[in-house]
């Protein structure tokens, strides 16, 4: 059964990595989370039912892996400093600088959202999952997804003065 999900898993890797970055805000840790989630998925490939949403199944595995990681880290403490991540490429033009500043403001605003709002925002707005799929991944009612998303959008507009 693992070979049956292999191609779908490879195609989903960029989306999984993006979700992992939202969860942990660290590129190296996001890579580790995606790798761990893929290992779990391959080891438990028999638990996935063909015909169901593969991406929702994988996002749930990744989120659960993240929660397990947080539980383990409570005793060890976090060692990653996001401000040390300087892999961004510079451009001498004014446009890219202004865009980068705006992007930085939006990223900062998203970073200031509570974790549950960031998760919903990414799954619905970036991953284009339905409210129902997001609710299933997060294990919450659809109404909770809708209210978290509304609060996240309102807070983003306030923080970025986009209203």
TrEMBL record:
<dbReference type="InterPro" id="IPR014284">
    <property type="entry name" value="RNA_pol_sigma-70_dom"/>
</dbReference>
<dbReference type="InterPro" id="IPR036388">
    <property type="entry name" value="WH-like_DNA-bd_sf"/>
</dbReference>
<keyword id="KW-0805">Transcription regulation</keyword>
<feature type="domain" description="RNA polymerase sigma factor 70 region 4 type 2">
    <location>
        <begin position="105"/>
        <end position="156"/>
    </location>
</feature>
<keyword id="KW-0731">Sigma factor</keyword>
<dbReference type="GO" id="GO:0016987">
    <property type="term" value="F:sigma factor activity"/>
</dbReference>
<keyword id="KW-0804">Transcription</keyword>
<dbReference type="InterPro" id="IPR013249">
    <property type="entry name" value="RNA_pol_sigma70_r4_t2"/>
</dbReference>
<protein>
    <submittedName>
        <fullName>RNA polymerase sigma factor, sigma-70 family</fullName>
    </submittedName>
</protein>
<dbReference type="InterPro" id="IPR013324">
    <property type="entry name" value="RNA_pol_sigma_r3/r4-like"/>
</dbReference>
<dbReference type="InterPro" id="IPR039425">
    <property type="entry name" value="RNA_pol_sigma-70-like"/>
</dbReference>
<comment type="similarity">
    <text>Belongs to the sigma-70 factor family. ECF subfamily.</text>
</comment>
<dbReference type="GO" id="GO:0003677">
    <property type="term" value="F:DNA binding"/>
</dbReference>
<dbReference type="Pfam" id="PF04542">
    <property type="entry name" value="Sigma70_r2"/>
</dbReference>
<dbReference type="GO" id="GO:0006352">
    <property type="term" value="P:DNA-templated transcription initiation"/>
</dbReference>
<dbReference type="Pfam" id="PF08281">
    <property type="entry name" value="Sigma70_r4_2"/>
</dbReference>
<dbReference type="InterPro" id="IPR007627">
    <property type="entry name" value="RNA_pol_sigma70_r2"/>
</dbReference>
<dbReference type="InterPro" id="IPR013325">
    <property type="entry name" value="RNA_pol_sigma_r2"/>
</dbReference>
<feature type="domain" description="RNA polymerase sigma-70 region 2">
    <location>
        <begin position="11"/>
        <end position="73"/>
    </location>
</feature>
């Amino acid at each position: 059964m693992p070979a049956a999900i292999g191609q779908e898993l490879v195609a989903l890797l960029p989306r999984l990595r993006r979700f992992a970055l939202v969860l942990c805000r660290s590129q190296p840790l996001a890579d580790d989370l995606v790798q761990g989630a893929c290992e779990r998925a391959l080891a438990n490939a028999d638990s996935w039912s063909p015909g169901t949403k593969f991406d929702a199944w994988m996002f749930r595995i990744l989120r659960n892996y993240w929660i397990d990681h947080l539980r383990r880290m409570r005793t060890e403490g976090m060692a990653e400093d996001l401000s040390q991540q300087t892999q961004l490429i510079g451009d001498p033009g004014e446009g890219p600088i202004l865009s980068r500043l705006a992007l930085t403001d939006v990223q900062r605003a998203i970073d200031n959202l509570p974790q549950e709002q960031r998760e919903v925002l990414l799954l619905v707005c970036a991953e284009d999952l339905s409210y129902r799929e997001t609710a299933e991944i997060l294990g919450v009612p659809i109404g909770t997804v809708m209210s978290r998303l509304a609060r996240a959008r309102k807070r983003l507009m306030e923080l970025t003065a986009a209203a």
